[in-house]
Amino acid sequence: MTIAMKDVLRVVAEQFDVSVSDIKSQRRTREVLPARHVAAYLAHTASGMSPREIGAHLGGRDYTNIVMYCRGVVRRLQEDEEFRQLVDRLQTRLRSSEVS
């Protein structure tokens, strides 16, 4: 099953209480940045998209930014149990029928 970027963006936006357009925007607020980072991570891990593809979906960001976003999420997953549970719930939701 391939997970579409639009589904990743929608699920993450709902969880973080931001809009999809905020995630794609140039905004760097403390509400938007974590959502953008998690969206990039989930797009890479759940859909197998390349950093270049993800960057194009996230407002034309350079692939190096996407790589750094993913590394930051991986680091936080190792250090923060509550964050890991949140990401696990999002991954489960993306794989379930809730996405459709």
> How big a fraction of the residues is strand?
under 5%
CATH structural class: Mainly Alpha
Give me the CATH fold name: Chromosomal Replication Initiator Protein Dnaa, Chain: A
The domain tally reads 1
Distance between the termini: 12 Å
The CATH superfamily label reads: DnaA protein, C-terminal DNA-binding domain
Summarize the entry for a quick read.
With 100 residues, the protein is mostly helical. Helices cover 72% and strands 0% of the residues.
Q: Helix and strand layout, with pairings?
A:
Blueprint: H1 5-16, H2 20-24, H3 32-47, H4 51-57, H5 63-79, H6 81-95
How would you describe this protein?
The protein is mostly helical and 100 residues long. The protein has one domain: DnaA protein, C-terminal DNA-binding domain (Chromosomal Replication Initiator Protein Dnaa, Chain: A, Orthogonal Bundle). The protein is 72% helix and 0% strand. Helix 4 (51-57) packs across helix 5 and helix 5 (63-79) crosses helix 6. It is globular.
List keywords for this structure.
single chain, 100 residues, mainly alpha, Chromosomal Replication Initiator Protein Dnaa, Chain: A, 6 helices
